[in-house]
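Hi team,

Below is the intake form for NUDIX domain-containing protein from Agrilactobacillus yilanensis. Please confirm the fields before the structure is written into the shared record.

FORM ID: S-0412
PROTEIN: NUDIX domain-containing protein
ORGANISM: Agrilactobacillus yilanensis
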Amino acid sequence: MLNMFGILEKPLITITNIIWSFDRTTKQLQVLLVKRAQPPYQNSWALPETFMRTQESADEAALRLIREKIGLNLSDFYTEQLATFTNQQRTSNERALSLAYMTFLPEMPALKAGYGALEARWFAFSAVQKRYCLSNRQLTFQTAAEASETAYYQALKQQQPDQHLAFDHEWILRLACQRIKNKLNYQPNILLVLGAQFTLKEARMIYAAFLGIKPSEIDNSNFKKTHKHLFKDIGISSSKQIGRPAKLYRLASNKVEF
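The structure came back. Fields below:
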């Protein structure tokens, strides 16, 4: 809404949440996408969003979104604020700012589309050349190709909505992946998707996905030596398997500092 001086008043504030999980059957990272039920971008796939309500903080709104979309009550231990997105071209109608979060789910629940969504699906995460890809059956989306914000938002106006994620979500997802990749060697919060304990093999799977290589290309001995300050040895796996039982680890800090 504009006042008599042409100054924008009360822009909408949305919470966009990149929700990560890990499929232990396929051994792949997953990202939650929803199919929008209403305009703008009706029938387009998008990252889950909600409007921030008057009586709640952004952190509270991000956790409410998790409750409403997938029925989980999480503490802020599993969330991390990513960035604020304010480019005027990010929405084509009413001005809307986005406070983006990342959530790392320690389990991969079944999905049921909530209010404002026609469908909700887990999309498998992988690296494709210099970009990241989300795939589910015949649907495939990639992170933004443009390296700069200016170039991305200029190209956004020319995109075909049915071939891309809604709004500027491909740019938000690109920055989320960059954040995670840049923190792998000192604060790998993404490993929270593996739950309270994990093997180094599982950790290497996560690292490899962001580095764009195969897990076998990460030498286990070197990985253990260079990352030992990040992990705490908590014992041996009790699951029945052929060969020597795998060692189990957790993140060294009891409370990850975001």
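SUMMARY LINE: Residues 146 and 152 are 5 Å apart (CA to CA).

Thanks, M.
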